[in-house]
Input
Amino acid sequence: MSDSGWPELDEDEQALFSEATDRLARRGVADAAADFDRRLDMLSSAASELRASWTTSEARCVEWAGLFLAELDLDGQRREIPCAVAEAGSIDEAAKALGISAPEHKPSSAEWEALRGHARGVVELTGRLETAEDATRELAREYVPTLSRVVGPLGAAKMIVLARGRERLARMPSGSLQVLGASGAMAAHRRGAPPPKHSPTLFSLPQISKSPRWVRGKIARFMAGKCSIAVRVDHFDGEPWDEEQIAEINRECENIRNRFPKPPKRG
Amino acid sequence: MPRRPVKLGWGVRREGRSLWTRNAVRGISVRGERRKRDSRIEWRAWDPTRSKVAAALLLTGNDASDMLPEPGSTCLYLGASTGSTVSHIHDHVCGAGNHHGGQVVAVEISPRMMRDLTALASKRPGLVPVLGDARIPYAVAPYIRSQADWMHQDLSIADQAQTFVKMAGAFLKPGGTGLLSLKAASERSSDGDDDSRFEKAARILGESELEVVERIDLAGLEDQHIVFHVLLPATD
Output
């Protein structure tokens, strides 16, 4: 490229130029919010971070309440526990609300306050998690309708985040999509381990996780191909798939499973 | 006993193992770096562990002042990030209120980084923030007033060397200086170990019209990073 040959600018023009470049840069920064990839990234990451902290907090809350309330059925009553503790005025009230007798050893009042505060946090976190996941689902259903039907809206969102954008996901070969997110396993594969059969997102599909292990790789390969076509349909303005086409995919998964009823013989 | 400062250029000096630039915006640090007054001039510390250009200036075996642009010149900085290194280049090239009449074009693709860079540019006349892809010449061309006397590239992409050759071909003035910061981990998509990746980059630079003056290993300050100091030979 030859010299761009800008004219010498006088002071006013120089001021105009820097004002213009500043505005263009700021507008570009503001326009980032119009990018659905970025919005989906924030939503989906917020949802998965909330999910991670919810699991920890909820487990702690249940174990903590269960320590005092020895008669509690920690599996059957699990969902009621945080609510009951959060709304009770004392450990005895909580026991009553959960339909068991008052405990022998009671927490001190400071301890009870801490326990109840924690339970309230869990209840609030549950609400926030639902809001974030619902919003993610809504955005994903709108942004990638077909892929959302194939792997579910949360899985579709996660795939886009992992691929860093819908366009990049749409341009990815199906083989990359099959192992998207299994980066640790891929690194091990480069050092000689067998290749991963599927990404965590694909594994979370019941078609794969509920299948016997010897067909998981085959189904994952098939599903990755379908996902890859689905995201291309969404990105390049294709006709979104309807229920009939989704049902056909599920039938094909079933076929693959039926074709291999027995594990392969070790040779 | 304080060491005698060594002048590397109008606005840059070295004191032992530390670098300082003449602060163009008095009283303000860009990223919390130290400032000190020396009679009427305020100097701002240029941290070589955070800036690859600073590290290269300290570790070069040649005259470090050859790697710096002249005050008042046109500079192109590809991959400006939040602009901490850019601010030091601006200190030197433009000075307070851009009394040197220099231009530093800072290109960055990430809006998040550009956010901080625009805030910086609004206080520093002569610094031009460009939100765009630094690999595409026509994204940069409208903003730069002439060919660049000095350019630096630090992108986190593979094929940095090829991009550098392309951008230098488009924008570097004959006789101009170029610096290319290379991070081994960013070239991971290519085969081989880190050294062979650097070799590959050196080969690409060597096959171009650019002339590699020095290859500076930043070990100690920034591991697995290399800065290539190149020159575009003047055409007669």
In short: The interface with chain B takes residues 1, 3-6, 9, 14, 18, 21-22, 24-26, 28-29, 31-32 of chain A (CB under 8 Å).
